[in-house]
């Protein structure tokens, strides 16, 4: 069992007068400053964080689109309901916090579901009905693919997948001809019921067949990635993290900053998480192990739950925040194995979670300071990027 050592804390900042202002602890609403701060001299500032705008966005709404596609397979017997690949379940679990078991009751999607996700970067998730043949000339392919960030193709690994694979390959070939820069992410889904060996065999087979098809058509370097996923564990969040990270142009800078933070603060690993979806948008360059990712993800759940139960709206908070936008929540947990988890709120949507040995947290002043510098650097990077 992990034990909670400290909960909400604050970071104080000297005001212009030079005096330090005493503030009550920030509540863990994980809502804060960077995107929302208003500057009296510039009441409509451009947001400092990346909003995911695509440079070639035609409509100008600036929202990258993730398309969820995959085949629904009709069974030979009309009384047996068709096999569905799991697209709506993925979207509901990742973006709407639906418990995985409740997806059993989801209805089949009859028309394209457009879901706007408001998070550290706004994007849209379009869930396509499995039976829709968007390669039919009646569809406006440019409308569907013209502005997307990534196409996520969901294949049911518990079902026969050759048909689904054929359609995937046709789609990839179409995209390679007309939209070659779109990332294609293949989710080999529902692997929870498969043995370790079997799921890797399936992955190998799918990768091989796709690559053969692509190289036959002369597309050796198509941007296609494969992920083993299930809504019943963290793999679906991990896979989405990888998908989203590819849409963040500042990713190498973020990783560089996290590397510097880790090496100067004695940290083993650091993640920046989007606390609404539990997608991590960046981590340092040491390898990600699933266990550390899972524990960080569970940690966010605990913090968000605690803040929802015990958080309160303080009178005058808005005014206080307008004066000092440097206040954030912080929490430290010691794990049974002696490791320490340190969470620091970055802004309304993002939290920094660091994993470190017990010796490192003894220098908490240093860690707080370095995290403050990291936050400032982050704000500068995104601020500079937008000018
Ligand atoms: N075992 C397992 N079942 C899953 C998983 N993801 C989804 N399912 C189940 O798959 C079934 C179909 O899910 P949907 O999300 O409705 O499938 P869909 O692809 O959106 O279907 P259409 O809307 O008809 O295209 C549901 O009963 C889910 O519970 C998974 O990771 N593992």
- Number of beta-strand segments: 12
Reading side by side through the largest sheet, how are the strands ordered?
1-10-11-12-8-9
Q: Which stretches are poorly predicted, pLDDT < 50 over at least 5 residues?
A: 1-60
Based on CA atoms alone, the radius of gyration comes out at: 23 Å
Write a brief caption for the model.
By secondary structure, the chain is of the alpha/beta class. The protein has helices at 87-96, 141-145, 162-178, 196-216, 235-245, 251-265, 290-310, 317-323, 358-361, 364-386, and strands at residues 3-6, 65-69, 113-117, 123-127, 148-156, 183-189, 224-228, 267-274, 279-283, 330-334, 340-345, 350-356. It is globular.
Topology:
Elements: E1 3-6, E2 65-69, H1 87-96, E3 113-117, E4 123-127, H2 141-145, E5 148-156, H3 162-178, E6 183-189, H4 196-216, E7 224-228, H5 235-245, H6 251-265, E8 267-274, E9 279-283, H7 290-310, H8 317-323, E10 330-334, E11 340-345, E12 350-356, H9 358-361, H10 364-386
Parallel strand pairs: 2-4, 2-5, 5-6, 6-7
Antiparallel strand pairs: 1-10, 3-4, 8-9, 8-12, 10-11, 11-12
Helix pairs in contact: 3-4, 6-10
Bound molecules: guanosine-5'-triphosphate (GTP).
Residues 70, 72, 84-89, 103-104, 106, 108-109, 129-130, 189-190, 192-193, 230-232 line the site of guanosine-5'-triphosphate.
